[in-house]
Design a protein that fits this description.
The chain is an alpha/beta fold. It has helices at 13-35, 46-57, 87-94, 118-131, 163-166, 190-194, 209-216, and strands at residues 6-10, 38-42, 69-73, 75-77, 144-148, 172-175, 185-188, 198-203, 234-240. It has a single domain, classed as Rossmann fold. Belongs to the glucosamine/galactosamine-6-phosphate isomerase family. 6-phosphogluconolactonase subfamily.
Length: 256
């Protein structure tokens, strides 16, 4: 399999989340066997959380030695710790609170009632990334990074024509102008996301078809951020039929 972007189409959102969950469990077992541990970057959004729920519901869930897995986030909303808008809360409810992952292996962004301001929270997460990085690196080796995709093609909290998508020096950015509420967020930057060995994009619904079609047709990533998502080894789009409506047929992997 080359590192070209692959599109795997599923009949509907439920089939999509179930398929990604099964693939995630088997791949994570392999990564742990090969490397001794796994660093997974989670996403917010309904499809991303749907995948975590499907992982939790899988009979194979505990085939993974969760004690060897670290969980990170690609982005987070700047809201209080217990706020329903927190990507961390949704991930904990869907999966993390139900598996034997050591608390220290879960690395959430700070919440707005934990640190004074957004910039301090961005620095704090950059420091956390560096604390778990190999010597000289600024962030860990990420094995699988999940990304949802917005109708405008945003990934994490990197939005079209905003400063965040252009950032290449910082590892974490504070976002104050998110067009998707809430307006204040934190996000990993594109170089950090793309450092991941695998990027798995999960998207469903006809409102995503245009962004996906534009991205695969070569749109600029500053205008369509998902166009700039590319893992070091693999970049796979897991989509339903509605989201695939504008994907060129030659880019769609055979379904099986
Ligand atoms: O914090 C967030 O809002 C997410 O990280 C965001 O990037 C999300 O993944 C997309 O907006 C897709 O969301 P849906 O899967 O709900 O369409």
């Amino acid at each position: 399999m080359t590192n070209e972007r692959r599109v795997l189409v599923h009949p509907d959102k439920q089939a999509l989340t179930g398929s990604v969950a099964a693939r995630f469990l088997t791949k994570t077992v392999d990564i742990i066997d090969d490397l001794g541990g796994a660093n997974i970057v989670l996403t917010g959004g309904t499809v991303g959380i749907g995948v975590l729920q499907a992982v939790n519901d899988s009979p194979a869930r505990d085939s993974v030695d969760w004690s060897k897995v670290h969980f990170w986030w690609g982005d987070e909303r700047w809201v209080p710790k217990g706020d329903a808008d927190r990507n961390e809360l949704a991930a904990r409810q869907a999966l993390l609170d139900n598996i034997a992952v050591p608390p220290g292996n879960v690395h959430p962004f700070a919440a707005s009632d934990e640190l004074d301001d957004l910039d301090a929270a961005a620095v704090a997460y950059a420091d956390e990334l560096a604390a778990y990085a190999a010597d000289g690196a600024r962030y860990p080796r990420f094995d699988i990074t999940f990304l949802g995709v917005g109708p405008d093609g945003h990934i994490a909290s990197l939005f079209p024509d905003r400063a965040g998508i252009r950032e290449t020096d910082a590892t974490v950015v504070a976002v104050r102008d998110s067009p998707k509420p809430p307006p204040e967020r934190l996000s990993l930057t594109r170089p950090v996301l793309n450092s991941s060995d695998r990027i798995w994009l999960v998207l469903a619904g006809d409102d995503k078809a245009s962004a996906l079609g534009l991205a695969l047709a070569g749109a600029s990533y500053t205008e369509v951020p998902v166009a700039g998502a590319k893992g070091r080894k693999r970049t796979v789009f897991f989509v339903d039929q509605d989201a695939a409506a504008q994907v060129p047929a030659n880019l769609i992997a055979p379904s099986y």
